[in-house]
């Protein structure tokens, strides 16, 4: 019984770990523009994150090594340092996007402009990270985040033309009249949102925090292989809701206020309360994960003591980095810049940084010195290699496509 | 488990199996990384690894500009730079996916920067409570 409780709590955490501001913003934007025409990218992203989350989880459970240890050991100090700088910048921007998102959610609930809420949100986030236990944060926010499933219920309630939705989802090319580069630009941001590097930093470091061992392997695998796909389904339901409501009207979904409209249309005020509650939980959870990830990656690169399992004063530099990242993110959002814009820039950055994060995981997952008999089988390697090719293509194409399409305008 | 054993091996690839590995000590928090190794010339002319070097100032020598400049800046901003700490090879207990050293050596190689940050973080309420 206790085992199943642990499993379901782990799955909750993984669902919450998948969804963040990037997934919400991109899924709504593509849903409004292409319907479910980019659903295949979400599927691809979910397969990729499952494959690499499973590998890095296995490396943690068997060898006790989190991802950033591997990055430095396998890439060497130079390439790893460049990756560290890039990943840190991207993760701080991602953190800023989540904090901005939380502030906007409170604005939508209260009517008071989001810039007023940025500092209280950041300070509250820091206090929670400083005081509350790791598992408790993950589980409470994961459970609350399930409220986002109201998107799926709304679609069913609105009773759309199901065959039209299925028709959109079956396509893997841009709808007639849509420019090809813009379509692929959106595809890359959607893919990067699903595979954001902080997810594996956080997951593998969390495994060390929760003291996984080889006997947790099956549980850890089940968590990733159920949790991330469920997260992907929730993301797709956001896209589908936008496809049902906004696409026929030719409307955009460029702000959180527009993203929640389908739920409001289906269930009015009650629906709005549920969806804002769900977004709040998901975004605070993602802010927690990104802020901790900043501390994890820097600590693991330099070999410092880290993590919430140590008394805070014994991981002083780790906590300083976490607090410092929250402060920088706060300053970025406090300038009044649109959190959706910050999200998009962070996603393009993430796409570029992806290969240097995932390559060391793939290499070490094949290294018997670390994993003994738990090295990758043929299936894991096949999926891992195919995803690595996709990741490389996305990384190379990201910036050129961003420039030529004017960020998908 | 087929860990590579440090003892009883006649060959070890320093680049992939020692450098940049995590250093741990029993009953202690992480010590640091193998940022560099100390090589000493023996009377017969051969080079011998005599110690592990730990600390960002040792790492600095291994990265090119402008990242080296960035690391130096980081050290200065955090009250350094401190000279690298040295862990004698005799204090290395085992080399697995991490490098285990004796408790005393781990203690002696503790980071001065961590100490400086600790003095500050300690003052925040709740800093001393047990980890979760």
Question: Brief overview, please?
Answer:
The complex is a heterodimer of chains A (409) and B (132). Chain A is mainly α. Chain A has helices spanning 2-18, 21-34, 39-63, 67-110, 115-131, 134-145, 150-158, 162-170, 180-195, 198-209, 217-245, 256-259, 261-302, 316-334, 339-364, 368-371, 378-405.
Description:
Chain A is 80% helix and 0% strand. Chain A is an all-alpha fold and 409 residues long. Chain A has one domain: Amino acid/polyamine transporter I (Up-down Bundle), CATH 1.20.1740.10. Chain B has a single domain (15-121), classed as PRC-barrel domain (SH3 type barrels). A four-stranded mixed β-sheet of chain B has the order 2-1-7-6. In chain B, strand 6 and strand 7 form a beta hairpin. Chain B is globular, with a radius of gyration of 17 Å. The two termini of chain B are 30 Å apart. The relative contact order of chain B is 0.19.
What string, H for helix and E for strand, traces the elements of chain A in order?
A: HHHHHHHHHHHHHHHHH
How would you name the CATH homologous superfamily of chain B? PRC-barrel domain
Binned strand content of chain A = under 5%
- Poorly predicted runs of 5 or more residues of chain A: none
Shape of chain A: globular
Corresponding CATH architecture of chain B: Roll
Q: What is the percent of helical residues of chain B?
A: 25-40%
Q: Please estimate the helix content of chain A.
A: over 70%
CATH 4th-level superfamily of chain A: Amino acid/polyamine transporter I
Order of helices and strands of chain B: HEEEEHHEEEHH
Largest sheet of chain A: none
Structural class of chain B: alpha+beta
SS-based structural class of chain A? mainly alpha
**CATH class placement of chain B:** Mainly Beta
Counted up, domains of chain A total 1
Q: Give the C-level CATH assignment of chain A.
A: Mainly Alpha
- Would you give the CATH topology of chain B? SH3 type barrels
Discrete helix count of chain B: 5
Q: What is the first-to-last residue Cα distance of chain A?
A: 51 Å
Number of strands of chain A: 0
